[in-house]
Amino acid sequence: MVHGLFGTRDNWKEIGGLLADHLDRRSTLLFVSHCNERQKTFDGIDACGERLADEIRGVAAQHLGLRRISLLGHSMGGLISRYAAGRLFDPASGTVAGLAPCHFVAMATPHLACDARYNPAQVPLINWISGVMGVGGVVGSVVSELAAPVSSITMGRAGLQFFLQDGGQQAQQVQQPQQVQQQGQAQAQQGGGDGGSASSGSAVAGPSGRAAAQQPLLYRLTQDCPKEGLHFMSALRAFETRTLYANSSGDHLVGWANSSLRRLAELPAKSGRGAGVVREDPLEAAWWPEARARLHATPAAAALHSGEARRHSEAEVLAADSPRQLAASGTQADAGRRGNDSAALAGQQQQQQQPQAQQQAQQPPSAQPQRPGGPLQETSAEVAAEEGGRERLVASATAAAAAGAAAAALVQALGQGGVRAVQPAEGERQVEEMLGRLQALPWRRVDVCFGATLLPLLSHQHIQMQRWWVNWPGRAVIQHLALSLEAMETLRQQGGTAGAAGAAAGAGGQGLGGQRNRAELGGLGVDEQHPSAPVGAAGSSGAGGAA
């Protein structure tokens, strides 16, 4: 289990306790990473990822009976986990630190970096400020200009990386979004990494035309860099399941689209205030399509797998003592525009967005289209600034422009410390490329909401339930997480899906092609001493696994 920015091992106390109750302790090692606590996270995602990789190697060496590894990360911890997995991934065996990758879970993680502009990576706080009556336009312009340099000052190298400010020269050429989506889907079937195959050994120059070492780190996390021994996408692809927990509102740091890997047009419509799981994809969505038939054929499938998106109230989740009870509760969620089948949506969305993007580039920010979907009545600022159907309340264009010019001058002064300005077109294209590559993988999305709670603006901490005395509204979410992992373990054991990731993603690739045989024939993913016991997302049987 991996904490986020400025976090500590104590952030996992509540989740760790629940996982221990729902997973077999005889065969499950729950390990909480503690190599990057507090200010160490300011060293950057790569520095933290290298330390985590060393920590996982040490745990694996101490516990030789481990056979599988799962990773659970919150916020920045999800990015650190992806880096460490890429460092530890062996293309020849399809293993991470010598262990079969099992479950990958990210909670409120900014997979698409952070941005001040209105796109899937936008920091919600900036959008909320821009919606404040009378002063929002002025203050929003200043905050937007200062976000990146201030982040680099307050959070060090990590702040640069969050805002894609750590790259080299600006891109000369950038692929169009549709090309990126098609490339990601093709390489997902072949098992090759974006920007270079894990098995080719060739130098990696991404679509932006820059050498890998000159690209922003978060952009590189959606590629393989084999010459550097970094196989980020191959490692992520190798996990049997991938799950995203995302705050649908109230998270002031990481937006809904960012943490759930959706475009703004793919976000489901929200209705009313609520607390709990407002939408969950079926369990099967976490697996590759090729493995789902085996899951449906299991005895537990009827009781654990509904085959439809559902929602659960806080009370329903807390009342469930087992995955079967959880599956039996809840109601069908409105299909909306869920964005779960990214491959099917990609063509329609890209055809619509390309002409719109050209029009938006010529329009002032106030004239650009707003987010679709109905408002979720939570706070007046959020209704005004975040949801569809609202009018952007801004000050006069003259005042906003003047504020922006003043902020730009301050940015230039702060830039003496090495902050690189990313052009709007470049940053947004990078976000689209990252999203296209990540959407080429199957994900199970679980959308949660704390709108009806006492402190909805602490949603980023609630989703992990960092501290019981203030983040207690998150108890239903962590209960849902524990029950979901228990359910997925039951399905994977009965369905024999071990190695399905390698079979699906590596059918045409040398790097992952061998994982299927090793996982199925060698028995990877099951502890030698307890072959029938579940192995959970905390490293269980995964070294540090849940690191």
Automatic annotation (TrEMBL):
InterPro entries named in the record: AB_hydrolase_fold (IPR029058), DUF676_lipase-like (IPR007751), Lipase-like (IPR044294)
Compositional bias segments (type: Low complexity): 173-189, 199-208, 343-375
Superkingdom, taxonomy of origin: Eukaryota
Alphabetized SUPFAM superfamilies for the sequence: alpha/beta-Hydrolases
Domain DUF676: 1-255
Pfam families, sorted: DUF676
Biased composition (Gly residues): 505-514
Region named Disordered: 173-208, 302-390, 499-547
Protein name (Swiss-Prot/TrEMBL): Lipase
